[in-house]
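Task 17 of the worksheet. Students: predict the tertiary structure of the chain below and write it out as structure tokens. Keep your answer in the requested format; marks are given for formatting as well as content.
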Amino acid sequence: MSLIQHIDVDLKAAMLAKNEIDIGTLRMLKTSLKNRAVEMLKPLEQLSDEEVVAVLKTESKKRKESIEIFGQNNRADLADKEKAELNVIEKYLPRQISAEELKAKITEAIAEMPENDRKNFGAIMKVVMAKYPGQIDGKIASSIIKEACSL
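Model answer:
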């Protein structure tokens, strides 16, 4: 079952259960996916799982930024709503690699690279992000790679 079909099934289940947070979040996801399909001049059903994950990551990032901003402005009520939406979105994202696992994988990737690229931040980042698509938080990877390049 594709991610789009999975979201459709979960939306129907949320509607039957009258779960307002899930309904609102899944409808928002469907709208974002439809917008992405229109941008790509494809029917919604033809979006690949990788394209769907890209949209989900964008929506997840928006929620994380909103949570941070609402937290800074003492708006716990709005931050809680964004956290609930983020939890729904994260159900559909691939499992994220932990910071410890990521550090080991980056060290491994650097060891496999040619000697002249081992201190090149961009080359390392490109290899790592391509090797583990959708499983890595770019901010965490960036800080680990910067630390490794400075050694």
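Marker's comment: The CA atoms of residues 73 and 139 lie 23 Å apart. The longest helix spans residues 49-72.
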